[in-house]
Design a protein that fits this description.
Layout: E1 9-12, E2 15-18, H1 23-27, E3 39-43, H2 51-57, E4 64-66, H3 67-80, H4 86-89, E5 93-95, H5 104-119, E6 127-129, H6 136-141, E7 151-152, H7 159-172, E8 175-176, E9 182-184, H8 186-208, H9 219-245, H10 250-253, H11 257-264, H12 273-276, E10 289-290, H13 300-315, E11 320-321, H14 323-332, H15 334-341, H16 353-361, H17 364-377, H18 379-402, H19 409-413, E12 423-427, E13 430-432, E14 435-438, H20 441-448, E15 454-462, E16 467-475, E17 488-493, E18 498-507, H21 513-555, H22 572-601, H23 607-632, H24 637-641, E19 646-647, H25 655-661, E20 662-663, H26 686-704
Antiparallel strand pairs: 1-2, 3-4, 3-19, 5-6, 7-9, 8-9, 10-11, 12-13, 12-17, 13-20, 14-16, 15-16, 15-18, 17-18
Helix pairs in contact: 3-18, 5-18, 7-8, 8-16, 9-13, 21-23, 22-26
């Protein structure tokens, strides 16, 4: 789509960025090609921006701010303001006269703002601020109806209706109201009454069928008494039928004497599991089940309940029952069992049929629906109250957000910190301004390493460990010689709070050209130092071993046999060869030094510094060239992408800009400095004497070799 707006762009970070100066620029952002936006998405938390404002802009609530949501926020705020330039001025308060009331929404927002000020005792106020909105949640919570469609029992004066709402919340569920109390909404109420009706209808079917509740209200307890012994009684009659089949089975099916002997040594009770495992009564062919005497003690109480609740009401006052009578009793409960299996599985059954019928027979459902409808009726008014806060925040924050999202103007201007810069790290004599918050250090480092920026990942702690945070700090000036895991520093967040910082990981990359220049010499010095330490350590170990060996040999000399062969004589030729080899090595080194010195002496005096400088450049140039290419490719994008951003451009950090992000120590202007250090190391003359002797030997050798005559 061709844009009718005339845009201005500025170049920073190696790419063109849109320059947003006026409200017209903001309102025309819909026409700007998204390929020209620096960011397409950013997280709503973990950055230095009002998180409540970002949550309001984040329409889908997924924790990410995207282009369409930013455009929608600008469009909405622009439509409700008489003067869109307020979005650029970013005032802290909203004048009522600036609210455009030419639309229905604008009228509601203006009316809500006046209502809030009136409730705060400021009906004549001409403007409203976020401070006025600070207690808006308490204000809304105090309202009987707050537009969320949730009705709380505490808000209902009628005791009967309040009890019904409490029953519904206890059995069907509840929701949190804006006031913080739990209540019910239309969905919960509808479900309860549907479940309650289903349960009442189910119970009515049982009452209407004589084959189901044949004992009336006592049918349930009778069925439970039957089920309690049904399996055991069935076991008894099967054993008696086995005894009828074969008389020899009666005795072992009644349990053997040995089984009773095992029980004899135990302390028995009616609750003993071993006792309960014995048959209900002694087994005999076709024997009826006794109901009064001769019952297993563990089952006596349940058999008595069976006799009282089932046998007596259905068969009369019998002292025993036959297998046929037992089968008939079980068949009698078949209809009841089928009815029970069709019982609705709902928590509302816990209230009991009488309470359910009481709730259903009254006007509770209509009253609850009316309360929910009244609450929903003020939804638009409540939203308008929320819109007042939203408009105040958008007026204050949208322009700043655009200059940290559409472009990185604040980051590259150097006047203000960007929203992704969470503070300043002081460590190793430097202050690092580019510090981003990191949730997972390892995950961030795996991707951010491609940025080419030297990053020090630090764990931050304050208040004795009660507060913790992780950051990645970019070192873009100086060197990395003393950056190492475990070093400590101090971090100051954007609120000025100080944190203890500890380096836990380093993504090592070139920091500066100066570091690259001295890198070969530092490496050479390090290698020479390490080799000298190894040589000294080996010689010391050799001397110690020789001393120990000599002491041992001296101690055992007396015990040496007389026929021990004498030690070999001193080999002059061998040591002469060693000294000759050492001489050749020294001569080769001297020859190299002589060649260098001779070449330098063959130059004119003004050419000597140039030759030395050229020699140093020849050594340092490869390292400097490699560092220069890497420093030119430094990119902020991977660092932010690893934090959840969607960076749409190659956000370069070139050498001059990188230098501004990390400050090196400098003495204040006009400060006086004394170069006298009373504790400085005393300088030895031996190094200078060795250098002078080496130069003299090289010059002497060059003179004998005829270099000067040439």
């Amino acid at each position: 789509m061709k844009s009718s707006h005339t845009w201005k762009f500025f170049r920073a970070g190696g790419f063109d960025q849109v320059q947003l100066d006026s409200a017209a620029d903001l309102m025309a952002l819909e026409q700007l090609d998204q390929k020209l936006w620096v960011a397409l998405s950013c997280p709503t938390h973990g950055i230095e921006f009002d998180s409540r404002t970002l949550d309001m802009i984040d329409a889908d609530g997924d924790g990410q701010l995207r282009v369409n949501e930013v455009l929608a926020a600008i469009r909405w705020a622009g439509a409700l303001l008489r003067n869109c330039e307020l979005l650029v001025k970013s005032p802290e308060s909203l004048a009522l006269a600036d609210i455009a009331d030419d639309t229905e929404e604008g009228k509601q927002v203006l009316a809500s703002a006046r209502h809030i000020l009136k409730s705060l005792g400021k009906p004549q106020a001409a403007e409203i601020s976020l401070e006025d909105m600070a207690d808006i949640d308490k204000f809304l919570a105090a309202l009987q109806f707050n537009g969320d469609g949730v009705v709380c029992a505490k808000q209902i004066e009628d005791a009967g209706l309040r009890g019904a709402v409490e029953n519904i919340a206890a059995t069907t569920g509840s929701l949190a109201d804006m006031s913080g109390d739990n209540g019910i909404n239309q969905e919960i109420a509808d479900k309860f009454f549907a479940d309650a009706k289903a349960c009442a209808d189910w119970y009515a079917r049982g009452e209407a069928d004589a084959a189901i509740l044949f004992l009336g209200a006592d049918t349930r307890s009778a069925a439970e008494a039957l089920r309690a012994v049904q399996e055991k009684v069935g076991d008894y009659f099967v054993r008696c039928q086995m005894a009828s089949y074969d008389a020899r089975a009666a005795s072992p099916l009644s349990r053997s004497a040995e089984d009773y002997q095992q029980l004899a040594a135990k302390t028995l009770s009616a609750q003993n599991e071993d006792v309960a495992g014995f048959p209900l009564a002694t087994i005999a062919a076709d024997k009826p089940l006794p109901l009064l005497a001769g019952i297993n003690p563990a089952w006596r109480a349940k058999v008595e309940a069976l006799r009282a609740q089932v046998v007596r009401p259905l068969l009369g006052d019998k002292q025993n029952i036959t297998a046929e009578e037992w089968t008939a009793l079980c068949a009698k409960f078949a209809g009841y069992d089928a009815w029970q299996s069709a019982k609705p599985d709902s928590p509302v059954n816990e209230l009991g049929i009488d309470r359910l019928r009481e709730i259903l027979s009254g006007t509770y459902q209509a009253q609850i629906n009316e309360l929910i409808a009244q609450d929903k009726a003020v939804e638009h008014e409540i939203k308008a109250i929320r819109s007042v806060e939203r408009l105040i925040r958008y007026q204050r924050d949208l322009f700043k957000l655009a200059n940290n999202f559409v472009s990185f103007r604040e980051f590259y201007s150097g006047k203000h910190k960007s929203i992704f810069q969470v503070g300043t790290l002081y460590l190793d004599g430097r202050s690092c301004e580019l510090c981003v918050k990191v949730d997972d250090i390892n995950a961030h480092a795996a991707y951010a390493n491609s940025s080419g920026v030297c990053l020090a990942y630090c764990e931050l702690v304050r208040n004795g460990g009660a507060e913790k945070m992780n950051i990645a700090a970019a070192f873009t000036a100086g060197d990395s010689d003393f950056l190492m895991v475990g070093r400590h520093g101090v971090f100051y967040d954007r609120k000025g709070l100080d944190w203890n910082a500890t380096i836990v990981r380093i993504a090592d990359h070139p920091i500066s050209i100066r570091q690259a220049f001295w890198s070969p010499y530092k490496k050479l010095t390090k290698i020479i130092g390490e080799q000298m330490q190894k040589f000294a350590a080996s010689r010391a170990n050799a001397v110690q071993e020789k001393m120990v060996k000599t002491a041992l040999e001296s101690g055992s000399a007396v015990a040496t046999a007389p026929n021990t062969p004498p030690k070999p004589p001193f080999d002059v030729a061998k040591f002469a060869g060693i000294f000759a080899a050492i001489g050749l090595a020294i001569g080769a080194i001297g020859g190299i030094l002589a060649a260098i010195v001779g070449g330098i002496l063959g130059l004119k005096l003004w050419q000597v510094p140039l030759a030395l400088g050229g020699l140093m450049l020849a050594v340092s140039c490869p390292s400097m060239l490699l560092a220069w290419f890497k420093l030119k490719r430094r990119n902020l994008g991977p660092i932010l992408d690893a934090c959840g951003w969607a960076i749409n451009a190659r956000v370069r950090i070139n050498i001059p800009f990188g230098t501004s992000l990390t400050a090196l120590p400098a003495l204040p202007a006009g400060a006086h400095r004394s170069l006298v250090d009373p504790y400085a190391d005393k300088k030895s003359l031996w190094p200078y004497m060795l250098i002078a002797l080496s130069v003299f030997a090289a010059v002497l050798w060059a003179w004998y070799a005829g270099y000067f005559s040439r």
